[in-house]
């Protein structure tokens, strides 16, 4: 993966190697977390950390550990100026000029926390923005749309450990070979089928869905199979490889949706679009959202282009 990133950057005239270093820190974090996830039951890493995060959600021990690992790795890279994590109330500003770079990294250190304790696949999600002036970074630098992302990816800790990455010219997948500790390209140039045969949504929330959403789900289940892991990384990974549609809509219970814009919706929308698919709130392209606060949420549907357009047609009606 490092060789591939370096070879891509060779074509960028103003490239300095900074992004390569930042991505190396992320690779390191993913390897570290992958190793701890595998041992979690053996080294007392399952269960609750005993506190709630700023969003009122129970935090698991692995959420805390993964957050520490990524925060430390990103600071040590010296290439970030602002870090936004699901697990931190505020954005972390890198104040030391010696340790400060030009990138903002938004991340969900451990996605799918509810699946940790039963060994179902979980992941890490990240998005990368660049700032013009890295001297005074602040949360205001994140009041911008997902179109400004310069890279995004996720790592899935599943039956295999896979990093999916885009630096703006398509999507590639790299599988971790634990024996040599390297991410090896196994899924070059991932492109999504224009239509799939799977829909993925938490139908336990059906009673809260709005009318267009209910109507769409009623008709899609007549023709598609249902799959829902409950870890966004895993549900998106399947959707990226097999096609179909995944959604977590805004509804009467989660008025603004559940998934967070900066570190869940944007990175996944970016990857899906880079792979030829589409991401939408139902009425707007998901990458065009502009968050007001770092932990803002949005409803989102993403997947094969025609499937997402079909969902949108229910909102147009
Ligand atoms: P996180 O574990 O980072 O808080 O994210 C959980 C998210 C996401 O992974 C998944 O798609 C969704 O929550 C599942 O929610 P439900 O359990 O409500 O279906
Ligand atoms: Mn998450
Ligand atoms: Mn999380």
Automatic annotation (TrEMBL):
Pathway: Carbohydrate biosynthesis. Residues 192-316 form the Fructose-1-6-bisphosphatase class 1 C-terminal domain. SUPFAM superfamilies: Carbohydrate phosphatase. Residues 1-188 form the Fructose-1-6-bisphosphatase class I N-terminal domain. GO terms for biological process: cellular response to glucose starvation; fructose 1,6-bisphosphate metabolic process; fructose 6-phosphate metabolic process; fructose metabolic process; gluconeogenesis; reactive oxygen species metabolic process; sucrose biosynthetic process. InterPro entries: FBPase_C_dom, FBPase_class-1, FBPase_N, FBPtase, Fructose_bisphosphatase_AS. Coiled coil: none annotated. GO terms for molecular function: fructose 1,6-bisphosphate 1-phosphatase activity; metal ion binding. Keywords: Carbohydrate metabolism, Hydrolase, Magnesium, Metal-binding. Its EC number is 3.1.3.11. It catalyses: beta-D-fructose 1,6-bisphosphate + H2O = beta-D-fructose 6-phosphate + phosphate. GO terms for cellular component: cytosol; periplasmic space. Its cofactor is Mg(2+). Belongs to the FBPase class 1 family. Homotetramer. This is Fructose-1,6-bisphosphatase. It comes from Hesseltinella vesiculosa.
């Amino acid at each position: 993966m490092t060789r591939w990133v370096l070879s891509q950057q060779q074509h960028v005239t103003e490239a300095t190697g900074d992004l390569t270093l930042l991505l190396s820190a992320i690779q390191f974090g993913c390897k570290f977390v992958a190793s701890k996830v595998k041992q979690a039951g053996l080294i007392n890493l399952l269960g609750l950390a005993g506190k709630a995060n700023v969003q009122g959600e129970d935090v698991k021990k692995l959420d805390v550990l993964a957050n520490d690992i990524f925060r430390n790795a990103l600071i040590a890279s010296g290439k970030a100026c602002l870090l936004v994590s699901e697990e931190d109330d505020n954005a972390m500003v890198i104040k030391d000029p010696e340790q400060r770079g030009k990138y903002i990294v938004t991340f969900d250190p451990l996605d799918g926390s509810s699946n940790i304790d039963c060994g179902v696949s979980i992941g890490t999600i990240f998005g990368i923005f660049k700032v013009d002036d890295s001297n005074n970074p602040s949360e205001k630098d994140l009041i911008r749309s997902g179109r400004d992302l310069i890279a995004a990816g996720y790592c899935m800790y599943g039956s295999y450990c896979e990093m999916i990455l885009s630096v703006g010219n398509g999507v590639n997948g790299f599988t971790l070979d634990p024996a040599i500790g390297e991410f090896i390209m196994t899924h070059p140039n991932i492109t999504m089928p224009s239509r799939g045969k799977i829909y993925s949504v938490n139908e336990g929330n059906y009673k809260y869905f709005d009318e267009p959403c209910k109507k769409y789900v009623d008709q899609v289940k007549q023709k598609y199979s249902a799959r829902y892991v409950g870890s966004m990384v895993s549900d998106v990974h399947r959707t990226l490889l097999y096609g179909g549609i995944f959604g977590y809509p805004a509804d009467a219970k989660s008025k603004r949706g559940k998934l967070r814009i900066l570190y869940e919706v944007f990175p996944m929308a970016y990857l899906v679009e880079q792979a030829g698919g589409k991401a939408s709130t139902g009425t707007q392209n998901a990458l065009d959202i502009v968050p007001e606060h770092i932990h803002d949420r949005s409803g989102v549907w993403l997947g094969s282009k025609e499937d997402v357009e079909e969902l949108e047609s229910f909102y147009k009606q």
